[in-house]
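This section describes the prediction task in plain terms. A model, or a person checking by hand, is given the sequence of a single protein chain and must write out its three-dimensional structure as a string of tokens. No templates, partner chains or ligands are provided. The sample shown here is typical of the held-out split.
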Amino acid sequence: MSAGDLLAFRAGGERFAVPLDRVREAARPRRITPLPGAPPWWNGVALIRGEALGIVDVAAAVGLPPSPPRSSPLVVVLHGCDHALLVDAIDGVEPPPAGPVAPPPPGRGALRGVVAEESGFLSLLDVDRLGVRGEK
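The expected answer:
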């Protein structure tokens, strides 16, 4: 691993990544408790290692259909955030993109940019904006 590496994962049928140095761990909380009246991208709250964290549905936060409920949800816990990211699967650690980073599509404020890949696109998440200020 080197500086600038990313943790790549899937949510809502698309690929996303966050800086690896912002990732604390991946976890499977026993339960996510819904929050009445919360925006659709706030999936609820979960206890992870005794810490209550808000759970942000990555798919819903970027304008995709919300993730369906799961019996064994997978989350990415971040350093310096009061929330974790609900994801479908983790692809692994990847080097920074070699190609240019394009601006995100309109209405996707939680993204820093998008990189074209052979098999599609990799969306780079802005973890400081995702969920904290309610931006989509």
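For orientation: The longest strand covers residues 42-48.
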